[in-house]
Please model this.
Amino acid sequence: MAVSDRSASHLGEAVGLSDEQLIEMYRLVALTRALDERMWVLNRAGRIPFVISGQGHEGAQVAITWPLRKQHDWVAPFYRSIATCLTFGMSPRDILTAQYATANDPSSGGRQMPGHYGSREHNLVSVSSPVATQLLHAIGIALAAKVRGTDQVAMTFMGEGSSNQGDVHEGLNFAAIHKLPFVFVVENNGYAISVPSAKELAVEDVASRAGGYGMPGLVVDGSDVLECYRVATEAVDRARSGGGPTLIEAKVTRLTAHSSDDQQTKYRSEEELASEKARDPLPRFRAQLVDAGILTDHVEQRLGADIKAVVDDATQYAESQPDPDPSTAMRWVYAEEWPSEAPPPWGFGTAGGHAEEH
Amino acid sequence: MPAKTFIEAIREGMADEMRHDGSIIVLGEDVGKKGGVFLATDGLWAEFGDDRVIDTPLTESQIIGTSIGAAINGLRPVAEIQFADFIHPAFNQLVSEAARLRYRSNNGYSCPMVVRAPYGGGVHGALYHSQSVEAFFTHVPGLKVVIPSTPYDAKGLLRSSIRDDDPVLFFEHKKMYRSVRGEVPDGEYAVPLGRAAVTRAGTQLTVIGYGLMAHYALEAAERVADDGISAEVIDLRTLRPLDKESVLDSVRKTGKCLVVYEDNRFGGYGAEVAAIVAEEAFDYLDGPVTRMAGPDVPGVLQPRPRGLVHDQPGEDRRRDPD
Ligand SMILES: Cc1ncc(C[n+]2csc(CCOP(=O)(O)OP(=O)(O)O)c2C)c(N)n1
Ligand SMILES: [Mg+2]
Model:
């Protein structure tokens, strides 16, 4: 490819991204939306039992995950983190096999409910159901990064409702005391299922709590993809260079019900739902890129066709994969292999990490 | 072989392993300069420094949750919960997270960590410094639970626990820290998890215990020997995985079984042992499996001539003349 093709537009230059990178960011936002919409179709068609959506959160997720180094840094995601998982290396096939709970689903081998993503290969910590527990895992990962001197950054994501959990208080305090390479991202969509944020938080912004823990807290418009990217880059750089943790609160909108089992018109008015559409990050980002001359008709057509093909492929793939073998349900409660030292059952474990490097 | 106290063996076990494996860290409340409220980690901070011996804030869920994350990213944390009574704020992290990480990721992730905590009564701890909490955790698939009763086993089992690739809860009876002494070899040795020890051979009755009760069971067996009763004593050492075969072999031989535990009787760990014996050795029993356990009240009671009373500071001074 000619060098001139890679040159950054004014928009790209302003944020330090090439046009190609901007298009890739846009592709991830649009791909996540298409994949998410496909999940609802599959749910309504009776093919998958449950959907918990990221619609409205995708722009913030892609942009904030973007500055991390893949397969080096770490992410502890939550159930809405589809765009984060795709940005950090999981594929649409990986996501849909988790929805179908197939034997080869990389998140859990079909053991967990849909929406509980994870990948050892991509340093994405396995999601569990009790909210906010993952924050402490990310902080422990950051502690290990500091102790081992690995230059890694750990990031975690959750909703504003979950941010009220005690684990968050305990963890942020610890992360700030030790200036750990850690970034806490709150995706504030204004609701915890049906409870509006006025009944979850006595303060307007979760980020205003950050000062009490001794770390910067930043509020960012989650539908402004490039602003999210700017803020996240700063936070990741600070974490990596020893400056300690940051709390980023992205104000997003939840475009769907809480999940496929929720009926949100019971607690959200038609007017509210209609006006919230204006906060959708996808058309906003698209308009920005079109205006900047980056997203041409040609590029958009190519992306659209590509996304459709990828989502169709993932659907067909997941549909055709076998269910887990019931005889494997009892496996992996404990380690089954002891690669080194004496091998009695419940004996030494791997004794891993007795490495010369230490 | 030099004789050491129970707590010296534990301290040595940690220090030896930390010298051997740079990925081991110790974290908990007061574990640094002070060396722990019982001095189990005394000297570790001086030898291994701030990075590997970490005084945490007073936040038990954080201690466990952070350990899980550190284990995910290549360390082998040995966390101390200052008293087993205060492990409950970390229950969710232990039960929902540490125990399930391997299973829920289909063996993608593991969680090699040890949680040490002093438990048990007899040191004037009343309701909140005396509890036995093992049954909450032996119930949970994915956790291993170890309760040693001798200095030799404490060091050897701690080594195996640290080297194990799954989360291990390691409960230490605090009354034994300084009152129990025993031979501990200097070199490297390990006691495998999941193996009980027959600590006294006998023919007429099997008495099963662990922790401090393993000592009391031995004492009682000696006493009834004078009355011509031959009791076999089993020290379980690891509660989960349970060494079922050693238990069943003994009961099939003796035909009678008494399970002793310090925890509240109802739903205690010994109830599971009793159920297994009843189910799997029924044909060999010539009497009902029996439990001897703590009464079903919060805390630990001590026998006094005027009856059972709470084990409190000052109780000795107030005690009735025997
Ligand atoms: C400890 C715990 N309590 C309750 C739930 C049930 N629950 C799941 S999601 C949720 C709401 C979370 O709201 P928020 O953190 O704002 O995230 P959002 O779903 O809005 O993205 C609740 C109550 C849970 N999963 N875990
Ligand atoms: Mg919310």
Notes: Residues 333-358 of chain A form one domain.
